[in-house]
Amino acid sequence: MQVVGLMVSLPAKWEQFLKHSADEHGVDLNAVISELLEWAFSNAEGRMQFEAWLDEAYPSKGEAEDKASAAGEEAVENEEEREEESEEESHEHRD
Prior knowledge:
Layout: H1 12-25, H2 29-40, H3 44-57, H4 61-94
Helix pairs in contact: 1-2
């Protein structure tokens, strides 16, 4: 297995848990994290679930921009509809 040097930040509760687990088993914290990732992504279903979660939680830049653009367009359309309805109501009251 090829290991790549990478620095990550872990939430405090998981860092403590993983350090304790590593110490209990007499292995390096990096080895525990490496094996945890190997276990989590060792099958296609696990990888697909992770990718689905990641896409939902953190959409890719292009997808996030598309969603923001669509939301902006929808807000403009809704505002235009409200203005039209308001104008129609004011015309009805004048008649």
